[in-house]
Specification:
The complex is a heterodimer of chains A (about 325) and B (about 400).
Chain A: H1 3-10, E1 16-21, H2 28-38, H3 48-53, H4 84-94, E2 99-109, E3 119-128, E4 132-133, E5 138-150, E6 155-166, H5 172-175, H6 196-203, E7 208-212, E8 218-219, E9 234-238, E10 242-251, E11 263-270, E12 275-280, E13 293-302, E14 305-312
Parallel strand pairs in A: 12-14
Antiparallel strand pairs in A: 1-3, 2-6, 3-5, 4-5, 5-6, 7-8, 7-9, 10-11, 10-13, 11-12, 13-14
Chain B: E1 11-18, H1 29-44, E2 53-57, H2 64-70, E3 78-82, H3 89-102, E4 108-115, H4 135-138, H5 151-166, H6 170-184, H7 199-204, E5 207-210, E6 212-213, E7 222-230, H8 232-235, E8 243-251, H9 271-284, E9 293-295, H10 304-310, H11 319-324, H12 341-344, H13 351-362, E10 374-378, E11 385-392
Parallel strand pairs in B: 2-3, 2-4, 9-10
Antiparallel strand pairs in B: 1-7, 1-8, 4-7, 5-6, 8-11, 10-11
Helix pairs in contact in B: 1-2
The chains are: A alpha+beta (about 325), B alpha/beta (about 400).
The structure holds zinc ion.
Zinc ion binds near residues 212, 214, 215, 228 and 229 of chain A.
Chain lengths: ~325, ~400
């Protein structure tokens, strides 16, 4: 960014960009529509009797309606051009900052508005940032200050309204397009009271096998009751992580973005005697064979999912 | 299993009806179901009002009451659904046979209909399904996170082990596909009518999940199939020559899982089919040599091999030799899937296979072998499943 351009746009700061009168006075009909749409059930906005007994002494307009009292409406848009704000927009457009997005809005209230107040706005160019790199693109934040006052000139509040004028196509998603988009998470296991302990242990890098508390038999996948002795009591033992490939597949299609393909997946015979489906890793897909000795390796896939993988034992 | 199966020759199939089999039916699943049921009832020479029972799959999305409404069936005194996907196919017929023998219904329609290609595709497996924490869904917690998401992938794990144990090869699987497609090529209703393949085509087709090529995997289809069942006595008064349900059986094996029975001592077998075979042979007194043809469930070719073994057409691990010797071809000892199977005709969850079994007994298959007395029809594999022996009325 050139110093000249920065100086050029800073000259607009402090200039008044025009005044506008509200079409209507503050009125009960618009207030009612607004509070019903928002679901705001405070009676002070609609109930004359209750409002009279409140600290306000009469009905008031919801403060955040401030902007609503001086809006241009759908029709009768004034011709653009001529105001300092329009000139500033033209300067930014001319420099390539042709896109616009509203970023934030702050309001400040001097007093409550009552039925019959009739408002006018004065808009002042409040500040213009230096050039910023944002996710959307490079651009300038442009803040206008809108002063709200009655037609009689009594200040009632003000609003800071910030927009970003930026160069389209200069955002991060474009400038760093070599980087692949974030990988979607793997399919979530459906957890319940019978299987949750296994996935919790995996998060702690412990490969566990359910063990009957009474007869000691090991089983996988886990289940509530021992089919050998009938016991409903069970714990778990930690597997050594050594095993062999009992069977395996290499998946080519369909391709789900959570995985890399070709995707080898194994049915591992653990040395403890149970079998388990798990990722195969540490070798080309074509290198895996049935009976190949493999060893456990943990994959912390995302904050909620850790899974075991098995790689060939290097002989 | 009961040693006293009393359903020998106890039911008869009197009508079959189907929609066309396509990839985009252009109409609702419900309409397909209604059209198929209407065609089957009409073929049987019955009035819809005579139907008093309906059976389908738990996987079916077209309720029996909707079909009854549309066909003016009126009252239903029997309705039932069978679980476990394609394993339900022959089980629906067994339900109907039990119902007509128990006297709770006289004429039962069994049906299955879906837009399985143009609508919800089963081939996508569980990848796009949020999983509930109930026992049936939590089962997938052991398979989906490492990436096993589809039926082809679950089956492939079985196939690798089967190949390792018995020396079967991808070409042996391919011979099932080639036979199916050869039969489909001569069946005008088949999606792959006039489109046979060679073993070379099979070997050159892309990997879906090793060891399965594309041509090992059945198609996805839109269509509906319905079957009308009654007692043999009533059947003899109807329009069609009755096809007798000589025996029917369901089976879930020890340590059965839905598509992932990976933890059995012997993984490369289908003990649930073995259980069904024992029931069918015990009930009828028949054996493998009494079957002149068979419809062997073929959603994925590798699973056809252990089925031939479980029913005793060959010894354990010998299916590859049985197939290499040409037994499953027309002119062989056991022509299979004469309609083209689910690889060649359509994937209607096994119900179109039941209909082809009926045609084989009637003598009306487009690939009709001579002198067919009895036909074995099987349902889905790697799931709790079912099978039938259909035969001539004596
Ligand atoms: Zn125990």
């Amino acid at each position: 960014m050139s110093i000249d351009f920065y100086d050029q746009i800073q000259k607009f700061v402090g200039l008044e960009a025009g005044t506008q009168d509200g079409h209507d006075e503050v009125n009960q009909a618009m207030i009612r529509h607004w509070v019903e749409a928002m679901g705001d059930e405070n009676p002070v906005y609609v109930d004359a009797q209750l409002a009279a007994e409140s600290i306000h002494g009469e009905r008031i307009a919801p403060p955040v309606m401030l902007q609503a009292w001086v809006m241009r409406g759908l029709k009768h848009r004034p011709e653009s051009g001529g105001s300092p704000q329009d000139d500033l927009m033209n300067v930014l457009d001319g420099a390539g900052f042709t896109s616009v997005v509203a970023t934030n809005c702050e309001q400040e209230y001097d007093r409550m508005l009552h039925l019959g107040d009739h408002l006018r706005t004065r808009t002042i160019i409040d500040s213009i940032s230096d050039e910023k790199q944002t996710a959307l693109g490079t651009g300038h934040f442009l803040t206008t200050r809108v002063e709200y006052e009655t037609l009689e000139g009594e200040p009632v509040g003000r609003m800071l309204f910030r927009i970003l004028k930026f160069k389209p196509g200069t955002g991060r998603s474009v400038s760093t397009e070599e980087e692949s988009p974030p990988r979607p998470l793997r399919p979530r296991p459906a957890l319940n009271r019978d299987n949750q302990f296994w996935f919790e242990a995996a998060k702690e890098h412990r490969l566990v096998i359910q063990k009957c508390s009474d007869c000691g038999v090991l089983r996988h996948p886990p289940r509530p009751r021992c089919d050998k002795c009938g016991s409903y009591e069970h714990g778990a033992v930690e597997a050594s992580g050594k095993g062999t490939i009992y069977s395996f597949v290499v998946i080519h299609y369909p391709q789900v973005p959570s995985f890399d393909y070709p995707l080898p997946v194994g049915l591992i015979a653990l040395e403890e005697g149970t079998r388990l489906v798990a990722d195969l890793t540490g070798a080309e897909a074509s290198e895996f064979k049935i009976d190949m000795p493999v060893i456990l390796e943990w994959q912390d896939l995302d904050p909620d999912l850790t899974l075991p993988a098995f790689r060939p034992v290097k002989l | 299993m009961s040693e006293q199966n009393r359903l020998k020759d106890a039911g008869a199939i009197v009508g079959i009806g189907a929609t066309e089999f396509s990839k985009e039916s252009g109409r609702s699943d419900l309409q397909l179901a209604i059209e198929a049921c209407e065609a089957a009832i009409f073929e049987a020479g019955l009035e819809p009002s005579q139907i008093d029972g309906m059976v389908t799959f738990t996987a079916e999305t077209n309720p029996e009451i909707e079909i009854a409404k549309n066909l003016s069936i009126g009252e239903l005194s029997f309705f039932s659904r069978i679980h476990h996907g394609g394993g339900a196919a022959c089980g629906t017929i067994q339900q109907a046979v039990m119902a007509v023998n128990a006297g709770v219904a006289d004429y039962v329609v069994c049906y299955r209909a879906f837009n399985e290609r143009s609508g919800h595709r089963f081939g996508t497996g569980v990848q796009d399904r949020p999983m509930a924490a109930n026992a049936e869904s939590a089962h997938f917690a052991w398979y989906a996170p490492p990436g096993l998401l589809t039926p082809a992938q679950w089956v492939a794990m079985f196939a690798t082990r089967y190949m390792h144990e018995y020396g079967a090869t991808s070409e042996d699987f391919g011979r099932i596909a080639v036979a199916d497609r050869r039969h489909a090529a001569n069946n005008p209703k088949a999606w792959f009518y006039n489109q046979p393949i060679t073993l070379e085509d099979h070997q050159n087709s892309r990997w879906i999940v090793e060891p399965l090529h594309l041509l090992d995997c059945c198609q996805e289809s839109d269509g509906g199939q319905a079957i009308v069942v009654t007692t043999p006595e009533r059947a003899r008064d109807l329009k069609q020559t009755p096809v007798i349900v000589r025996a029917s059986a369901q089976g879930a094996g020890t340590d059965q899982e839905m598509m992932t029975s990976y933890y059995r001592q012997e993984m490369a077998a289908l003990p649930e089919m073995g259980l069904i075979a024992r029931q069918l042979w015990n009930t009828t007194g028949l054996g493998p040599r009494d079957m002149q043809a068979a419809i062997i469930y073929d959603h994925f070719t590798p699973l056809a091999l252990p089925q031939l073994e479980e029913f005793g057409f060959c010894g354990r691990g010998e299916a590859k030799d049985f197939i290499r010797d040409g037994n499953i071809e027309l002119g062989g000892n056991l022509p299979i899937n004469t309609n083209g199977g689910q690889l060649g005709e359509a994937y209607i969850h096994g119900m179109n296979g039941v209909a082809e079994g009926v045609r084989l007994v009637r003598g009306t298959s487009t690939n009709q072998p001579p002198d067919v007395e009895n036909v074995l029809v099987t349902a889905g594999t790697m799931v709790p499943t079912s099978a039938l022996i259909l035969g001539k009325d004596s």
